[in-house]
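Quarterly update from the structural biology core.
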Amino acid sequence: MNAVKVVFLPPNTTSKLQPPDQRIIKSFKVFYRKESVKKVVDSIDKKQKMKPFNMLDSIRMADRAWMNVTQKKIKNCFEKAGFSSVESESDEEQELHTETHQCEEWENVSKILNLSKTTTFEKFTEFDSDFQVCGLMMRSFLKQFLPLRMMRRGGCSSRHQHYCGSG
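Predicted structure, tokenized:
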């Protein structure tokens, strides 16, 4: 076990501090949203009524989006988080910039939907970046649940003090 170094991220950190959120998820979302724009454009081109997205459509779009997230991007994200030495961040930054700014279909869709010129594809890909997913609910749940569980076990470990009400 000498060759393995286990690194833990601080407890209760927002997901923005964790390596996957340092560009991997953003990149995936960009590609997924490109897929959704392509679906809209395909319907328009075929002069068909837009069919609602179903679970299978979403899974297929997620698969295609994930296939566009490169191994290099994933490696760079973990390096940036401190899991290895950082080689070159500039290529990765440029790649992300290109991903979020290039969607040929967006211009078509924005004209058809009569969107303002300020509604860029980049803004479309980031519209949910400030949404609180479940952090507050989870924290509230843990504050209620962990003390009961710890009392049954006979105490609260130092690792969970912030949930147990003393610390």
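Residues 24-45 form the longest helix (22 residues).
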